[in-house]
Amino acid sequence: MKEKFNVVGKPVIRQDGRAKVTGQAKFADDYKFPNMLFGVMVRTNSTHALIKKIDYSSIANDKNIITIVDANDIKGLKKTGLIRKDQPVFAFEKIVTPGDVVAMLVGENEDELRTLARKVKIELEELPVLTDPEKALDENAPLIHPEFGTNLIIHHPLRKGDIEKGFADSDFILEQTYTTPHIEHAYIEPECVIAIPLGDKGIHIIGSIQNPFTARRIVAEVINFPLNKVKVEQAELGGSFGGKDDTMCILSARAAVAALKTNRPVKIKYSREESILESYKRHPYRMHYKVGYTKDGKIKAMKIDILADGGAYCSMTPFVTWRSVVQATGPYEIENVWTDIRGVYTNNPYTGAMRGFGSPQIIFAQESLMDEIAIHLGITPDEVRRINGFRQGSITASGQRLENHEVNLIKVLDIACEKTNFKEKWLENQKHQNRRIPTIEFDEKIRNRKLILSKEEFVEPNEIWKKGIGLAVSFRGSSLGAEGIDAAAAYLSIQNDGTAYLLCGLAENGQGMRTTYSIIVSEVLGIPVENIYYLEMNTSHIPDSGPTVASRSTIMGGGAVKNAAEVLRKRFENFLREYWKLSDDDLIIFENGSVFVKGKEEINLSFSEFSNLAYKNGICLASIGWYQGPKIHWEEETGHGSAYFTYVYGCQVAEVRVNIITGEVYVDRITAVHDAGKIINILGAMGQVYGGVTQGVGYAIFEELDKHNGKPRELNFDQYIIPTSKDVGEIIPIFVEGKDEYGPWGAKSLGEPTLELTSAAINNAIRNAVGERYFNLPINLEEILLKRKPRPEDLKRGSL
Amino acid sequence: MKTKNTSMIKLKFILNGKEIELETLPNKRLIDLLRNDLNLTGTKEGCSIGECGACTVIMNGKAVNSCLVLAGEINGSEIITIEGISNDGELHPLQENFLKYGAVQCGFCIPGMILSAYALLKKFPNPDEEQIKEAIAGNLCRCTGYKQIIEAIKNTKIS
Which of B46, B49, B104 faces A21 most closely, judged by CB atoms? Predict the structure, then answer.
């Protein structure tokens, strides 16, 4: 294992940074083409209805309409989807959710088209609406997609040991139900895509696309083209967090259909309202946990029943819920486990991939539960986790032995507790809890009540803010696991002046992947990072490397980049050994832009001179690297198997203040200790923690996408509130670099672990502050004061 | 935006240090004027209602949301966009620090963020953390959690 690094782990300026701070970076909407047309969507006001007739006659002759495209224009598959083909590009049989699009108006003036879109007459036959996932599997529930005969999208069971015996062996049994809401990704750049027809050469797509290869597959099957005639290029991506996948595939397909029909470039650009209306969300979960434990704090049995609202389309629901079933018991060794997770169709907005991918929900539930066990037994929260937590060689719920990497769960817990003085603060706060949050019931009593507080009800000014500290821990499988094929490619080409081109088949989402890969090349070949030009992502330039999801870009793409660089390095060393007439024992060093022999530093070349020399000697200066994850297996019927080939561990401690009068929670500090393996790009890694934790704070105390009859009520940032610069206190990232045989120098995953823990840690800190336990995210003012979420009766909210 | 039944007006204003004269509809949004007519695409559109701050530009020394400013309002004013911050390819100290402190991720909010900071530093050359947070509170960022952005601004010294 390499011990000393020249570039890895040091602050490096982003590859794309200069373009981004000067406004030169080209995002999708910054592209313009001659003769370009715009596509504007036609939607209905319905949530669930049969489409009887679409009548364009009122607008067909308008001079602003160049053409109208709908399902009749699709030559390939009319319905698509990443796992199950249930989502129409243009709805033609049914409306199943308010975001559905029946047609697209195409013309030169986008503004005029938006007015005309409202004039299309769509004849519908309304159907009963299903918005409650609990009713989705009822016998008389309306079927969202009748062709499947059920609203059940997926059921993942997991059975380990003897659950009844486990409960019988327990001294105590605790049962709780937790819920989490729909969450909007809230990338700041709304969706945008342009399709450019290329005649015999096919079609070129440029867009805010998270996964260009997925978009290519979907476009190809919709327009019935071979894959090599669909070139998908990624524009600079203005945030994604898992959210610019399915939606962008469908938008790309719509733009492609229109571009081929008109033989002109077609751009689709969403407003924020359209973006929130049509794009998918993070799954709301209803989680019922039953846990049996001994008086010593050892968990004997855990029975988990989870219902995930998949919304109107399948999307990633089977994979999101699969990660949940693997990780639902948390990082604890439990002999007897019985888990069922079901994903169901409803008429709500559809749900799919979002940062965390099935883990933020279960961690909120299960890490809240662990604290309740600790409090019930009179031990501290860290103790209950030490008693049950994974150690080297522990066996997971799915029967996988954790042995091929450093199992650093207890280590991250210890560091987090030590850095925050957790135990002392927690015990101190427990003493000062004020259980008298003035809960107000809006019933007849209050109307008749005198609104003058009695002495017992009066809160001293210095008693208003209560301090609390809480923690949460997690383990997380790196990359895709048994979800799918796990491999990635990278292309590295050295020029004969020593500069280089680099490209990986994964896609930059803003996380800093280009920089991480450049650091890896720089480390292996000694090329200064600034001499590496990271190429534009285009599906015609690099092998399909799967999607940029599951925090897999460093471990998988990084592995491929390292492989490409090492292949070249080996080739270069062989050449130099002969050229310099070196013995096999001589060590050739590539460092800081030069090449030399260790101990014989007089034998040296600058990397630029070397590259020219190698080029003139006919040495191939380019390579394609490949990295394939090791084999894993999964048995769907029992939930057994080696779900992921390696895992990462994290512990976050939240320190909060709760205003017991207004219900406001302010997060003073989050200490985030993560073992993500080797840290390659330190500025990027810190950015992942700051950003992930901030999203986690939003999840904990602000964010909720509410619906009325399946339609999102918060359609813009005046109503859907995400954290601003003022909303989160200090965030302290701490990295523990556990050793691992996989990934570049053991670098693994960080993006998602940073977010998944925060809401549970905050919930536990609130409990520590006020002595009340909350079960439903977000823990906003209403939740704190009323322990419920008042829902207005209609769609009207805010200014809309 | 609808631009029907309105007659063109003549505008004269200073954009990134250069005097501009043009004819446009008075109800055209400043963001559209910049992005579509003048091809300055560094100004981004994120919400169109003045909530996200991605379209922030400087107007007469103040950071404003260009999606909420109409062309008719800018006559005689001085506008600075992200394209006008750096000097002949040399980065402004704020831009340098955004890079140095790792303040950039996807980059979509960054032009607006830098301009809000620019307006702050013009007014208060040595702002404290609360002033910085307040100055960028109207610029939403979903990637960075703001911490490295705040560090970058705090450590920027302009002469």
Answer: B104
